[in-house]
Amino acid sequence: MAQLQLAVEQGELGECDFCGRRFLHLRLEKHMNVCSKSQGSKRKVFDSSMARARGTDPVIAPAIYTNHSSPSVQNEPPKNNWRQKHESFIRTLRQAREMQHVISKGGKLSDLPPLPPVENPDYISCPHCNRRFAPKVAERHIPKCKTIKNRPPPPPQRRLRHQQCAQPHKNTPTLLRSN
Q1: What are phi and psi of 24, to 5 degrees?
Q2: Which residues form the C2HC/C3H-type domain (predicted)?
């Protein structure tokens, strides 16, 4: 360190013609040899997306990493179902208010009727397993589900809902018409 300060004071530093950095005269010639080689050739920029895509389908891989805002492909705007979402939100608030009212009176929550299922209208139902998926996920799922041979039974809540529709509830009184 002291040698470097002494060299700076005595003016023994020379400047590289290629990069402009300053070196001791003893090291300047060696640096200029290396620096001239690196300055002459531009280094190729590494594209990590193409490295990840290597080994995949050559037709699909470049399309994945291209600019997504091409003017030729016009996606239709998503359906605006704000009214359904708003009504669902209001229903949820009313149910919560009703639950708070029952709790404050000292009642049991089990005395309240079961909450209706909240279904997202944006979801698409699979025709094979009756599960619901977001649109892009449904595009992937439905072809796979179509080929499944040993399909498990549908989810329990779906099964229960279908049974409840077919049979009246045990505790629900049936109304008989009298003429």
Answers
A1: -65, 150
A2: 12-41, 122-151
